Amino acid sequence: MSGEVTPGQTVGPFFHLGLPYRGGNELVPATHPGVLRLHGRVLDGAGDPVPDALLELWQADPAGRVSREPGSLRRDGWTFTGWGRAGTDAAGHYWFSTVAPGAAEPGRAPFFALTVFARGVTDRLYTRAYPPADAAVLAADPLLASLPEDRRATLLATPDDSGSRAGLRFDVRLQGGGETVFLAFPRNREPWT
Fold it and tell me: Where is the Intradiol ring-cleavage dioxygenases domain (predicted)?
């Protein structure tokens, strides 16, 4: 061994073997009042679906409180933990059953914090999905305000009422034209801050 630093390498992807769990993408049951379906696709640089990605979601509740409740891995049907995990299917599609988040801090727009794990990605990627909101609220959000308009658009979820319940669509593009904005967080900082 020469002791030289080498680039990281992925192993797998093996996400589907051990990380998803029953009900992981259901932060609230489908019968919950105010249930919302956040869904979309994970796409590679060529626009092709990534069938073996894994997404984790963190969010505040509708009042803007960040839950510290245990129970995410063993859903009880009524405790909102604000966390979920979903894998993509063969078409790169994922979905979460949740509620609309409230703003966790004054002067900020509400958002879903997402972490993406995928083939060819040596470390997780952080991003946000902002639900539709008043233009002034979105413009005042420090993160959104720091981005050029075309890049800002990659963080905005769009209404999708095509199903039996209210929905938001948010596609994640890993690279290339229209690449989703990804964020860097200092060590030990939580993604909803």
Answer: 35-175
